[in-house]
């Protein structure tokens, strides 16, 4: 056998070996989509965390300013701070409503993805495409997991909105005593309690944001395997 034929055979074998090694590394389009969605959710969660931290800082400043004004018996300053609080509550209620609407939309989308992946699996099974059907079933499991997470997020957003609405109504009820005349010491104590409760609610949302980011990162690690 000539040296040129040997070299050609060696080249062919080497090329085929390289293709065999590199082929598994090629990511499935569905896997790439999953990872892209995971990264987008992480970025969105980080932005929500920053927004909630900013809102918490603004609320903390309002609450501490109000307590200081009360300690100094500065009624005029208390009223200016109350106006800041009313604006803050109006903004937060609007944002909470928007978050519920977005979460509801995500649940609809994720449920649709589950139906589509399940339909793909049934279609490939009927056509005898066992490997494709197995991939579709795996994708359907991931989609069901995502849909479950989205339903949990929706329930949490609804609960946050309801708690915020309740606190807003209670504060408004107490605030009538401050608008109408000289409030009593008990009314000051009740308003202080509600303000502190509002601060705790916002901190709970920040804790939920961090937990959601951790879960999104875990899902990304799983999708990268």
What would you note in describing this structure?
Helices cover 91% and strands 0% of the residues. With 225 residues, the chain is mainly α. The chain has one domain. Helix 2 runs antiparallel to helix 3.
- Please tell me the total number of domains: 1
Uncertain regions: pLDDT < 50 for 5+ in a row?
1-26
**N/C terminus separation:** 46 Å
Q: Which shape, going by the Cα principal axes?
A: elongated
The total strand number stands at 0
Largest sheet: none
Structural class, from helix and strand content? mainly alpha
Mean of residue pLDDT values? 84
Layout: helices, strands, pairs:
Elements: H1 3-22, H2 29-71, H3 75-126, H4 130-180, H5 185-223
Brief account:
The protein has one domain (30-223).
Name some characteristics of this structure.
single chain, 225 residues, mainly alpha, 5 helices, 91% helix, elongated, disordered N terminus
């Amino acid at each position: 056998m000539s040296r040129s034929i040997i070299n050609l055979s060696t080249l062919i074998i080497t090329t085929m070996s390289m293709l065999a090694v590199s082929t598994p590394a090629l990511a499935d389009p569905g896997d790439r989509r999953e990872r892209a969605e995971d990264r987008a959710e992480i970025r969105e969660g980080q932005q929500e965390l920053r927004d909630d931290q900013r809102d918490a800082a603004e609320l903390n400043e309002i609450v501490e300013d109000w307590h200081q004004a009360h300690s100094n018996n500065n009624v005029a300053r208390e009223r200016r701070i109350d106006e800041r609080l009313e604006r803050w509550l109006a903004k937060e209620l609007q944002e909470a409503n928007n978050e519920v609407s977005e979460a509801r939309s995500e649940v609809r989308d994720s449920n649709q993805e589950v139906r589509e992946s399940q339909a793909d699996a049934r279609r490939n099974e009927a056509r005898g495409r066992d490997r494709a059907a197995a991939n579709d079933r795996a994708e359907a499991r991931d989609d069901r997991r995502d849909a479950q997470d989205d339903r949990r997020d929706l329930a949490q957003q609804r609960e946050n909105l309801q708690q915020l609405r309740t606190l807003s109504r209670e504060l408004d009820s107490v605030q009538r005593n401050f608008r109408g005349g000289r409030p009593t010491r008990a009314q000051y104590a009740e308003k202080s309690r509600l303000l502190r409760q509002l601060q705790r609610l916002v901190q709970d949302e920040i804790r939920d944001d961090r937990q959601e980011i951790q879960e999104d990162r875990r899902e990304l690690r799983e999708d990268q395997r």
